[in-house]
Amino acid sequence: MTAELPGSAYRNDVRVSDEEREAVVEQLKAAVADGRIDFAELDAKLGHALGARTRADLDHATADLPSAAPVDPGKPLILKGGYHGVKRVGPWQVPAQVTVYGGMAGVTLDFTQAVCRRPVVDVDVHGDAAGVTIVIPEGWAADTDAVDPSYGGLKDKTSAYRLPGTPLIRLTGTGGLAGVVIRHPNGRERRRLKRQRPQS
Prior knowledge:
Largest sheet: 5 strands, parallel
Strand order of the largest sheet: 1-3-5-9-7
Number of helices: 4
Structural class: alpha/beta
Distance between the termini: 65 Å
């Protein structure tokens, strides 16, 4: 009989991370949106997921749900403001990891028309000399606790409210000399988005 090497197969007694718990929470929220479970079931399953210590605990919360398809992390996106500035706007595919350098002319990273199929997006941001502005749709949330404000500072103007099934933008990095701003669309941007929305 051949001994199984440690870690060579799935083990349900392995301790889980916060990120694994978050992924299950997003799967449960999606199940509500799809009509697979009701809000009473969601509350019970969320209790299991958030209190999970092992994979077995997490499996218990999703045992009667379809398996979540793995999402391709995609190629990391790197934006550098340089001397001319960069704007990433309009429709674009969001990878799991984005790195942004404000440079001398600044960067605008606009998620309002982006296609994002992942629960968490990690954005490593560096304000540098001209700063970085990040715009996320209403209903998306941001975690800015890991950003060092430095000289330029950090302005988080986003709402704490997060709609079920929407991404969390998780920021790291530094404000640099000019700072970092993350916000929802302003009035002018909302009007532009409304004009671009297909008419029914």
